[in-house]
Amino acid sequence: MSLKLGLNLGYWGIGPAGEEALELVRAAEGLGFESVWVAESYGSDVVSVLAWLAGQTERIKLGCAVLQVPARPPAAAAMAGATIDKLSGGRFIFGFGPSGPQVSEGWYGVPYAKPWGRTREYIEVVREIVARGGPLEHHGTHYDLPLPGGEGKALKLNFHPLRERIPVFVGAIGRKSVAMAAEICDGWIPIFFSVEEFEAIWGEHLEAGFAKGGRSRADLEISPSLQVAIDGDLELARNVVKAGLVLYLGGMGSRKTNFYVDLAHRYGFGAVADEVQRRFQSGDRGGAFEALPDEIVDVTSLVGPEAEVAERIERFRAAGIDRLIVAPAQLDPGQRLHTLERLASLAGVGTRS
User: Fold this and answer.
1) Which is it for the CA torsion 46, 67, 164, 321, positive or negative?
2) Confidence grade of residue 353 (pLDDT, cut at 50, 70, 90)
3) CA distance linking residue 83 with residue 33, whole number of Å
């Protein structure tokens, strides 16, 4: 089975940015990477970065990992996606996620209630707009278009999209949200993914979604997002991975609601995650970092000697994973490029001219 590779730039300005990022993207494109992915939270936005990359690349697909649902109305997301898709010659990929209550309500001022019901309906509206079958009439639980009783009227996208259906992925790590991905989406982007626990943790939820949607495994591209380092200073790379884990386990949520802590519990690292969260939220970020064992890095990333990484890549291939969306876990640009080169070779994507 073929295994596609995507490059994850993460949050613009926190990860690689500017010319450094562009050089990395162009190198990935030359190595045969199929896609590049960009994230947003409460800093840089996905749309601007992908539009910037569209005119400076030729073949590589342009993915969102992810566009935050509370950040913009579905019409704005559809307009941006259809525009970038046309500018890039059909290379855009939607990727949606509902964020979390702290960001949704604290940054965007959007209530977080029923996040995945809202995301499902958001996807419906986006697809209706891009399909351009007629003026938009959508009267759902979360979106009522046009608004009743006002002066608004049903409108239709005023240009013809290059494609009537642009792929829609979601970033999901909850049981019901993963089932929804299997039911209606073109792709699923899990974070902190363990290929060893793939079937045990996610198998039944994927199958439930496929059954509900009348679909099969072939209808969903599973594309985990992973940090990777091959050879070089592996201790430093593990520390980079740990720094990300500390932020997500400790800071991306509250004591009441943190989806990444919940996921760590399912992986058997519940006590570790609880301790990291406790220390982080008490202001002891150094202690939170020290509380993370190397084992959690090994489970959720691709960091190690080349032979070890090659063996794990074969596990992903054997599990039926479609794509690895990777972020080099190194600070040195030369090491990042080396990692991309070795990964392309190990995955067998080859070098394109």
Assistant:
1) positive
2) very low
3) 23
Where residue 332 falls (left for φ over 0; alpha for ψ -120 to 50; beta otherwise) is: beta
pLDDT tens by residue, 128-178: 999 999 999 999 999 999 999 999 999 999 999 999 999 999 999 999 999
Burial of 250 (0-12, 13-18, 19+ CB in 10 A): buried
270, 203, 66, 158: CA torsion to nearest 10: -150
Q: Is the dihedral of CA 2, 300, 65, 237 positive or negative?
A: negative
d(CA 271, CA 191): 20
Q: How many CB atoms are located within 10 Å of the residue 262 CB?
A: 15
Residue 307 CA, chain-centre distance (Å), reads 27
Could you count the other beta carbons within 10 Å of the beta carbon of residue 64? 28
| CA dihedral over 174, 313, 219, 213, signed as positive or negative | negative
pLDDT score of 289 more than 60: yes
